[in-house]
Design goal:
By secondary structure, the protein is mainly α. 64% of the residues lie in helices and 5% in strands. InterPro entries: Exonuc_VII_S, Exonuc_VII_ssu_sf.
């Protein structure tokens, strides 16, 4: 089984939430879906943490603060 993308996992998690909220499942089905939902929520959270780390790296954020530097335009070649 291939790993789900964030969007696939989120869509499945939303479906599971809808099913559980309907209250029409028996206890065993509910527990099975709840367990899958917990795994999907953890998967989504890990993907979000990974994305946040990449953004912070790209923005140069260190210890919760963005590192700044004055803008220095490149000199134009003549």
């Amino acid at each position: 089984m291939t790993e789900k993308t964030f969007e696939e996992a989120l869509a499945r998690l939303e479906f599971i939430i809808d099913e559980l909220e309907k209250g029409e499942l028996n206890l065993d089905e509910s527990l099975k879906l709840f367990e899958e939902g917990i795994a999907l929520a953890r998967h989504c959270n890990a993907k979000l943490d990974e994305a946040q780390g990449k953004v912070e790296l790209l923005l140069g954020i260190e210890d919760g603060m963005a590192k700044t530097a004055p803008f220095q335009p490149e000199e134009e070649s003549v």
